[in-house]
Specification:
This protein has about 300 residues and is mainly alpha-helical. The protein contains twelve helices and two strands. Strands 1-2 form a two-stranded antiparallel sheet.
Length: about 300
């Protein structure tokens, strides 16, 4: 490991830059999870499947001869409707229920989404080619696909728009009020049912944008949603709910960790490293909570 770092430093620069760019995409997905988790107290196991569905929208445009970059405009609207529909059909029945019930419900949605995508698009690994070209840096020692830079820019702009919308719009203020105290917001006239549906729809729309970016930068497969769910869960656990700067930093940190794991351990250990990191974080959080309880008692 040390040999690779010191003998090929530009390789690690490449891994770091790739990781930072991918981490921005992960952060957008995580922010969607943090939003609906904070407002509705639901852990969405189908988060990754929403990302892959958004990716297949971009890939579908590509197959129709339309540039996949238009997917970042079309996917969020379609996925917002999908999220709204899922809320009306399933999620509204598990809001205010035990957290484990929401995990089971969204796990069922995850399985159903996987089978539907497999039926519609097949089980082959696909990618939507953007043909954006490549940016070369440091005398061609580091190369960055322009599709990744485009995806990172789209995710940053989307996050900024969402933050402004949450602060300035009437619905955004209603969402923040519901997140703070749903019962008080309802007493004050906030339609919490509408807020919940809109929140889940916004989460799905963010996943749609991220998925359209993934279609151009990585690969798509009906059964690759779980790693995105785990990534977003890890980022939220580290950053906390409603803390966008911390989510962004945690997302980029996770992206760099993944890329370094890929280069140092091998591609076959990339996802294993992510799951191992999740176990470490959960164990650390468990001991942290235990120490806090001892201090309070």
């Amino acid at each position: 490991m040390d040999f690779l770092i010191f003998q090929a430093p530009m390789l690690m620069v490449q891994a770091t830059m790739d990781g930072l760019i991918l981490g921005i995409i992960f952060a957008l997905v995580a922010y969607g999870m943090a939003l609906q988790w904070g407002v509705m107290n639901i852990i969405n196991i189908a988060q990754g499947e929403l990302v892959i569905m958004g990716g297949y929208i971009g890939y579908g445009l590509y197959m129709m001869g339309i540039h996949p970059a238009f997917g970042v405009l079309i996917a969020p609207f379609i996925m917002y409707c999908v999220g709204w529909g899922l809320y009306k059909l399933v999620i509204n029945k598990v809001v205010d229920r035990d957290l484990f019930i929401s995990i089971l419900a969204t796990f069922g949605i995850s399985i159903l989404a996987q089978q539907l995508m497999n039926f519609a698009f097949g089980a082959d690994v696909v990618v939507a080619k953007s043909n954006f070209g490549t940016l070369a840096l440091f005398d061609n020692s580091v190369t960055l696909p322009m599709s990744k830079l485009f995806a990172a820019g789209v995710c940053v702009i989307s996050a900024i728009i969402l933050v402004l919308y949450m602060k300035k719009s009437k619905l955004g203020r209603a969402i923040r009020a519901t997140a703070q105290n749903a019962r008080a917001a309802k007493i004050l006239g906030v339609d919490t049912e509408k807020v919940y549906a809109a929140t889940f729809g916004i989460n799905a729309a963010l996943c749609g944008i991220a998925g359209a970016c993934v279609a151009m930068t990585l690969t798509l497969h009906p059964y690759t949603g779980l790693p995105y769910t785990v990534r977003s869960f890890m980022i939220v656990i580290i950053a906390g709910l409603g803390n966008l700067p911390a989510v962004a930093i945690s997302g980029m940190g996770l992206g760099v960790f993944e890329e370094w794991s890929d280069y140092l351990l091998g591609t076959q250990f990339r996802i294993a490293a992510v799951f191992s990191l999740l176990v470490i974080i959960l164990v650390y959080r468990r001991f942290q909570l235990a120490r806090k309880r001892e201090y309070l008692t």
